[in-house]
Design brief:
Length: about 300
């Protein structure tokens, strides 16, 4: 029986399966499961996918505060919560991660919550806001610690936790790409359409083309009849508030080590339709060491097919 208990306490749990501190039999206050439990030992870590969040908008995830005594709380229990950098430092050390605390403008949660008499749990919301300080490339972790309770004992194992979350911009998703590709330096290279790709969030209003056939931020091609790609070339699209594509750049450098750069072709529609989630864009790949002018012309339409 002891072995079964130990296994159950160290397993990766999902929301709805309650963590319970084994060191105390009653009147223990803890942070209970919320979202996916992604840590099997040490400080508990939870993950919530917040989906697409526009610039300036907010999404929330739950913080569950639990009374573990027999039955329900005999009195109101006031619980004080705090953001605790030491919790995150210990979590990173234990898990070999490098999460950082979000800026104050990005995260907020109530610092005082009450487990009402006759209940055993209260849920409050942590709010995540995509402010100007939000960094989509950062691995954020929100370290929450119970610092004080009006009744009972703070859990030794579950008195603190790290809440991480995923946020994508409104352009992010899985897409099918159709269109044309003309390589002025090689008639043997043609477009490989339709392509299955992801548009991956890289900023509040930027996405990178992730080519599923290649498995990275590249652009696949047909070289004769074989699938290939342009080395050191992957594009990032910038879309402004009026739904216009304003910039296309090579993520490997402008130019990259082999002299390749990207540039928007202003003759294209270069637009984003939020109602149909369709992106239309024309752009070039330049490589002056191979050919003068624009080497490759792309004219592409991205049709949204679902969440990545």
């Amino acid at each position: 029986m002891l072995g079964v208990l130990m296994i159950s306490l160290s397993s990766c749990l999902k929301e709805g399966v309650m963590n319970t501190d084994p060191n105390y039999a009653s009147n223990v206050i803890e942070l209970a499961n919320t979202g996916d439990n992604v840590t099997t030992s040490g400080i508990q870590g939870y993950y919530s996918d917040l989906g697409s969040v526009a610039a300036g908008a907010s999404k929330t995830f739950n913080i569950n505060v639990h009374y573990t005594g027999p039955g329900n709380a005999p009195n109101d229990v006031v619980v004080t919560l705090a953001l605790d950098a030491a919790t995150l430092a210990a979590y990173n050390t234990k898990n070999g991660s490098s999460k950082v605390v979000p800026p104050a403008s990005v995260v907020s949660f109530p610092t005082s919550v009450t487990i009402k008499k006759g209940t055993n749990q209260t849920t409050v919301e942590a709010k995540i806001t995509v402010t100007a300080e939000f960094n989509f490339n950062a691995a954020y972790g929100v370290p929450v610690k119970i610092t004080q309770v009006s009744n009972g004992i703070i859990s030794g194992n579950y008195g603190n936790a790290v809440y991480s979350f995923g946020v994508r911009n409104s352009y992010d998703g899985a897409y099918t790409v159709t269109g044309s590709l003309v390589d002025a330096a090689s008639s043997a290279i043609t477009g490989r359409f339709p392509m299955s790709v992801g548009l991956v969030t890289s900023g509040a209003n930027t996405v990178r083309l992730y080519d599923n056939a290649i498995g990275g931020v590249y652009h696949s091609i047909l070289s004769g009849t074989s699938t290939s790609y342009y080395g050191a070339f992957g594009v990032e699209f910038t879309i402004d508030a009026s739904n216009k594509v304003t910039k296309v750049e090579n993520v490997y450098g402008q130019p990259s080590s082999n002299g390749r750069s990207a540039m928007i072709d202003p003759s294209g529609a270069n637009s984003w339709d939020p109602s149909t989630k369709t992106l239309k864009v024309k752009y070039w790949m330049d490589q002056p060491s191979v050919i003068a002018g624009h080497r490759v012309a792309f004219d592409e339409t991205f049709k949204y097919v679902g969440v990545r």
